[in-house]
């Protein structure tokens, strides 16, 4: 058997594509979806206490949502608290020492609730979230499209 034949049979999943390429593609998919909508407060909030300004890009909410969906795909059972820690950063306090601060939980929670309503992720009885079968197929399909675009 040749390796090339086996390579085509195996499906492409999210792990097989670069994170930034996948997140950009899935963010575009969410933006075009009529089920996922931008909250009214999205242009007013900062992503964390440690930030001075709100995000500049208009599509930052979709990008964060795509990133959260990818995180839930790669680590089933992840919750809001763990994602807060992941998106957190150093709070620079002038001349005083820096301290780590968690990210804004409201943004993460609102994204997860919208993804649940789209049936992309679901609650676990033990706490945290995981991908649904439909959500996993959706993300794998987009990852496959990204993979084939990068090959060409």
TrEMBL record:
Alphabetically ordered keywords of this record: Ribonucleoprotein, Ribosomal protein
GO biological process, any: translation
Record InterPro entries: Ribosomal_eS19, WH-like_DNA-bd_sf, WH_DNA-bd_sf
Gene3D superfamilies in alphabetical order: Winged helix-like DNA-binding domain superfamily/Winged helix DNA-binding domain (1.10.10.10)
Single GO cellular component term: cytosolic small ribosomal subunit
UniProt xrefs under SMART domains: Ribosomal_S19e
Source taxon at top rank: Eukaryota
Family according to the record: Belongs to the eukaryotic ribosomal protein eS19 family.
Protein name: 40S ribosomal protein S19
Organism of origin: Attheya septentrionalis
